[in-house]
Design goal:
Elements (H helix, E strand, L loop, with lengths): L7 E7 L5 H10 L3 E8 L3
Parallel strand pairs: 1-2
């Protein structure tokens, strides 16, 4: 059972940093239910 098992997650990644898809994969492997994932550009 993962550390985030049963939790819902909203993921916002950074275009120049860690993209949302990478964070989403980590969160899912920790057991989270990802309800929204996006990669944004913060300038």
């Amino acid at each position: 059972m993962g550390i985030l098992a049963g939790k819902k997650a909203i993921i916002i990644g950074d275009r120049d940093g860690i993209p949302g898809q990478a964070i989403e994969a980590c969160a899912k492997s920790a057991g989270a239910d990802v309800v929204f994932s996006s990669t944004e550009c913060f300038v």
